[in-house]
Design brief:
The protein contains 35 helices and 32 strands. The chain has 1057 residues and is α+β, with helices and mostly antiparallel strands. 32% of the residues are buried.
Length: 1057
């Protein structure tokens, strides 16, 4: 049970005093006691503390006279009234004391207690209620103190009002349906009146009286919805058999905006408007004698025969404390006008001859006691009701208690509720994970033998402080609803700041926790181990908690372990009043906040969360471990490597190593399985170089050394597949350092290096001269190796064609160097030499190779055709096209310089010695390309002995070409004439597209509103100039208009109609 209040006798009547207490009133340090004799006693309350309490030291008892009484009697007004004083109240603002005696309400002076006025209208009064409130004047807005006195006189309620110490002239009356038994103010303008037929709400401003109805239940017979609460129904007829006794209606104000109504054992919660609040009733076994509210508890005084005071939580309705008070029948709680004004102050309970003052324990100690007793729900409810200023670190306390409650739920095998509460409290993941066995929590697990746990705690007690452990040291065993270490932590933290952040391991075992050590040991020993089905259920709930924690951590930490937002500087932290970052709740702190490396701790938490989540997946759902690796994670590589290797999940292990950028370890594992060198039997997908090639393709260019290191064995095993590392159509492959790759491939195989260069030059269009030259060098190196370097003659021919094609297409290699590298006496390189000479512009030497060395006249002719078409055309008066293919008959060869065909013809007819003229290819050249051979130079090469008939085809070609030139000139002249006529017609008549007359014959309207765009004057009768776009200016302004003919922007600055 809670020890929220302690009863201390304040006033005790002596035996010879035959007076009885009828009423009490406390205000300030005064207590007024109304007696049955009509006397009024005034007591002064003395505040007792530890220094004034009697004590015994060294066996010497303090003198009796030094003992201070709880209260001193200051005076007694024996003639205060002729009858028992039934009720007392004060209106402090008016400096008056209100009393109820002899069925009259009287007003006395608060200082002298002299009677000022006896309110005659209150004859037959049964009770009254007072209230004081600050009210603003609606017209001026000036605040004033308004006090009201409501007196119940049979069925009437008479109301007096004081405003700024002045009593209003008239009293207001309200008539109800029955005699009023109790009055309580709900607000400054509304009060609850209790009668035998039930309760009503009286609004003194609108003078409305409304019934307070209880909520109807579906199962109630006859439909009780709308029935006045407290009304005597057929079910209440039993009171008639008890001497017509009817229970007294009672009411009390609770928290802001709430009241509690009670009649017999029935209760009803209402708001300030009288509306019922859905809440269950207090579980009273018998009707209380009196009820009250002492923030934040509900009080119920049992009948004098029982002599007990119940202290309950108004939210949970739980019984927190029962205080034995013999024959107590009065309960007086000072009702403040300001919220929490009496917080920490005691209320009064009285019997006929004794008054007890209830001393309240401080709220922090009350919460500690509830936690010690394992009543976490009550502690959470109490924290929710208390103001922040009344507690030390309310949020931290509430969070800590929620975690303790979640821990208790976990031990009761309520895993889902426990993990949801841990998540709500934002518990450090380390604390939650420690509840699991080592298969999930690893070295962080708190599940260990009782003997080990006790020995560890004893060791801490012997040394006076806990031993220094690593960041993953074992937590104290949280396996009971209230573990020893948790209580020690919780109680000790209350004396320090940041109570929720200090480690459970950082405190000694307190005396409170030591007293329950034996019970905890028995509980630990008897608890069933977390295994089997229970473990599976608990781990599934842990997965959800850890997944949610991962999402929250991503708001603060990057994938590389750095913080997304820098920590506050010391100056900023001092301004905000908290040096802890926003993510401090994720960290289980073991040292003061100012000494913690927050970034490092957050990374450790992220690693712990991901590693534990991996263990959970491997235990209950191994198939989900793979997707975890494909995301950015902070899993501990050693743990993952061990688990996956033991379970044979090599593919997942490789994916994990790739995600953690442990590429060397992954590639070593792939090579081990790919070469079939592992002792374990691996999946068929891991055999061979396929996975290694795919892995290497994903690596960035910065890791070129690692790529080349592990690319050799796939290249030697399967060259075609291995080359995909460098030839794939991916960004990584295209951005690899090409020089490094080329050197590596050349060491492995010349053919692979040549294939890579072909890809780089042809597919990627690399124009680096070095690569072009190296490709030629590789071709020549392979071709010079002889037939042994090739598997067949077809392959050798293919390489030779590649060399020739590349020499012909590339312009980036060193031509002189390439020409010198080509052998002069090897027929396989004759054509290659001719191609290089052609690239150097040495056409005659190239043609000599085709004519004299290769004796391939067809290739010589093709060479001339290619050279002629690629040579820029000469200027021609009748030619506009630059396409070389149209030059066959576009100009007169008589005016042209000797062409490449003339060079070939000269080699045929006038070869250098020792070669002789070759007539057949020469005549064939003349017949096919005679139009391209100037007659003046061509005929000089033909010997006089050659018959003219052999030159028939040559002369026919020449004649056709001359006719073509002449006909082309005629056609061009006629087309230009037609074009001239069309332009002149458009100038005179326009284009006629809009159906109007255009050109120079068009009309332009000059109105009065039209101005010159240059001088901005009217045209009048002046000479004007009209442009093709119908813009008009003065003739004299043409020079200044900036226009010439139909152009110019100067006159276009204004839009013309």
């Amino acid at each position: 049970m809670l020890s929220a209040f302690t009863a201390r006798p304040m006033v005790e009547f002596k035996q010879r005093d035959k007076s009885k207490i009828e009423s009490i009133l406390a205000y300030g340090d005064r207590v007024l006691v109304g007696l049955n004799t009509g006397s009024l006693r005034i007591y002064r309350v003395n505040e007792l503390n530890d220094e004034t309490e009697p004590s015994e030291e060294n066996g010497d008892r303090q003198p009796e006279q030094s003992k201070i009484k709880p209260a001193d009697l200051l005076r007694e007004e024996e003639k205060f009234s002729r009858r028992p004083v039934q009720q007392l109240a004060i209106i402090k603002e008016a400096n008056i004391l209100v009393s109820l005696s002899d069925n009259y309400v009287s007003i006395h002076d608060l200082q002298s207690y002299a009677l000022q006025e006896k309110l005659e209208k209150t004859k037959g009064a049964t009770t009254f209620a007072v209230t004081s409130n600050i009210v603003k004047d609606p017209s001026t807005g000036i605040p004033s103190i308004v006090s009201r006195l409501a007196v119940a006189v049979k069925r009437k309620i008479i109301l007096w009002q004081w405003q700024d110490m002045e009593l209003s002239d008239e009293a207001t009356q309200f008539t109800l349906i029955a005699a009023v038994k109790s009055l309580n103010w709900a607000t400054g303008t509304k009060m609850v009146a209790g009668m035998d037929p039930g309760f009503v709400m009286v609004d003194i401003e609108s003078q409305e009286v409304s019934d307070i109805n209880k909520p109807g239940a579906l199962g109630e017979a006859g439909g009780q919805a709308g029935t006045r609460f407290g009304a005597v129904t057929s079910s209440g007829m039993g009171y008639m058999g008890m001497g017509s006794w009817v229970p007294k209606p009672m009411a009390t104000r609770l928290a802001e905006g709430q009241m509690l109504l009670a009649k017999d054992v029935n209760t009803l919660f209402i708001d300030s408007d009288g509306n019922a609040i859905e809440k269950r009733q207090f579980p009273w076994l018998s009707a209380p004698e009196a009820i009250g509210y002492s923030y934040p508890y509900m009080l119920a005084l049992q009948p004098p025969s029982k002599g007990g005071l119940e202290v309950r939580n108004p939210e949970t309705l739980s019984l927190l404390q029962t205080i034995s008070l013999p024959n107590a029948n009065f309960l007086h709680v000072p009702q403040p006008n300001i919220s929490l004004a009496h917080a920490g102050k005691g209320f009064l309970v009285a019997s006929d001859r004794c008054i007890w003052r209830m001393g309240a324990l401080d709220y922090d100690s009350q919460i500690d006691e509830l936690v010690t007793n394992g009543r976490y729900d009550e502690a959470i409810s109490l924290l929710g009701m208390l103001e922040d200023t009344l507690l030390k670190d309310k949020k931290g306390r509430l969070r800590e208690i929620k975690m303790l409650k979640a821990q208790g739920l976990f031990e009761l095998r309520k895993y889902r509720e426990a993990l949801e509460l841990f998540s709500e409290a934002k518990a450090p993941p380390e604390r939650v994970i420690a509840l699991y066995p080592k298969s999930i929590a690893g070295g962080l697990s708190s599940i260990e033998s009782v003997k080990d746990n006790d020995s560890e705690v004893d060791h801490e007690e012997a040394n006076g402080e806990p031993s220094v452990t690593s960041s993953k040291a074992t937590l104290p065993t949280p396996v009971s609803s209230l573990s020893r270490s948790m209580v020690s932590k919780f109680i000790s933290e209350q004396k320090k700041t940041n109570s929720d952040t200090l480690s459970v391991r950082s405190f000694k075992d307190s005396s409170d926790t030591a007293s329950i050590r034996g019970k905890i040991t028995e509980s630990i020993a008897s608890d069933k181990a977390l295994e089997g089905k229970d473990l599976t259920i608990a781990v599934n709930e842990l997965r959800a908690f850890l997944a949610q924690t991962r999402v929250k951590l991503k708001k603060y930490i990057n994938t590389d372990g750095t913080l997304k937002r820098p920590l506050q500087s010391p100056s900023e932290s001092q301004q905000s009043g908290d040096i802890r970052p926003k993510f401090y709740k994720f960290i289980f702190q073991t040292s003061p906040p100012e000494t913690i490396d927050w970034a490092l701790k957050l990374r450790e938490v992220a690693e712990l969360v991901d590693t534990t989540l991996f263990r959970a997946y491997m235990l209950v759902s191994p198939s989900l471990a793979g997707p975890l690796f494909r995301l950015d994670n902070f899993c501990d590589p050693e743990v993952v490597n061990e688990k996956l290797y033991e379970s044979g999940r090599y593919s997942d292990l490789i994916d994990f190593l790739h995600g953690k950028k442990l590429h060397r370890e992954a590639l070593e594992l792939l090579a081990k399985f790919g070469k079939n060198e592992a002792d374990e039997e691996a999946n068929s997908q891991l055999r061979g170089p396929q996975r290694t090639v795919g892995y290497l393709q994903q690596l960035p260019p910065e890791m070129i050394e690692l790529i080349l290191e592990f690319a050799e064995w796939p290249l030697r095993t399967d060259p075609e597949l291995g080359m995909e590392i460098f030839l794939a159509d991916t960004e990584n492959a295209e951005t690899l350092p090409r020089g490094n790759v080329l050197d590596f491939l050349q060491r492995v195989d010349v053919g692979l290096a040549a294939r890579y260069l072909e890809h780089v030059i042809e597919e990627l269009n690399d124009l680096t001269p070095e690569f072009h030259q190296r490709l030629i060098d590789l071709y020549l190196e392979r071709l010079k190796g002889g037939e042994r370097a090739f598997e067949s003659e077809e392959e050798r021919g293919l390489w030779r064609e590649k060399l020739q094609r590349f020499l012909r297409s590339s312009t980036q290699y060193n031509k002189v160097r390439a020409f010198k590298q080509l052998p002069t006496d090897d027929p396989d390189f004759f054509e290659s030499r001719a191609i290089v000479l052609s690239q150097m512009g040495q056409h005659k030497q190239a043609l000599q190779i085709y004519v004299f060395q290769l004796k391939d006249y067809q290739k010589a002719e093709e060479y001339c055709n290619h050279t002629f078409l690629s040579t820029p055309p000469p200027a021609s008066p009748t030619t506009r096209s630059s396409n070389p293919s149209t030059r066959l008959f576009n100009f007169d060869p008589e005016d042209a310089e000797p062409s490449i065909y003339h060079t070939l013809l000269s080699l045929y007819l006038a070869p250098p010695p020792p070669h002789t003229p070759n007539w057949p290819p020469a005549l064939d050249l003349l017949s096919k390309h005679g139009a391209r051979l100037p007659a003046s130079t061509t005929l000089d090469l033909i010997p006089h002995s050659l018959p003219v008939k052999e030159l028939e085809s040559y002369f026919l070609g020449r004649i056709r070409n001359a006719n073509s030139v002449m006909n082309e000139e005629r056609i061009v002249a006629r087309l230009r004439g037609v074009e001239k006529v069309e332009v002149e017609a458009q100038l005179l008549l326009g284009d006629g597209k809009d159906g109007k007359r255009g050109g120079r014959g068009r009309g332009v309207v000059i109105g009065e509103e039209r101005h010159c765009a240059v001088c901005h004057k009217r045209f009048g009768g002046s000479a004007i100039r009209v442009y093709p776009d119908n813009s008009v200016v003065h003739s004299g302004c043409v020079r200044n208009s900036g226009r010439r003919g139909t152009g110019g922007e100067g006159a276009r600055r204004e839009v013309w109609s």
